[in-house]
Amino acid sequence: TGKRIEVAGTKDMNPSAFIFLYENHLFLTFRERQVEVWNFKGELVVSFEDHLLWRADGCNTNNIYITTDQKLLVSYCKQEGSEQASINISSILSGKCHAKLVESERGGSAMLEAAAQGARGARQLPVG
Hints:
The chain is mostly beta strands. It has one domain. It has no helices and 10 strands. It has strands spanning 17-21, 26-31, 34-38, 44-47, 64-66, 72-78, 85-91, 97-103, 110-115, 122-126. Strand 2 and strand 3 form a beta hairpin. The protein is globular and about 55 Å long. InterPro entries: DUF7899.
């Protein structure tokens, strides 16, 4: 439409990188290890839980993958309070972490930590 929308209070919040999600008409933004989803009105739609990107500059989009249907984000992340890395699989529309691939504390194979539906809590499945 050619209209310019200025969002108050976001002057110093420029992302390092962004990806336009054409299927959802949303923007996925990356800034200081954080991932967020914004709409065309400049409103924050989703902040991701338990999703701290590994790289501090936040602009290396080579470490993320978005599914073809644009429903899931797969990212190389850093565990909060730890130097341990993980591969997180999160919903783009809700920000919820559905699964996480982490190194076993025993130093062996990786473990897939998947959030179970409902009241079943979390479960871990060995991988590899």
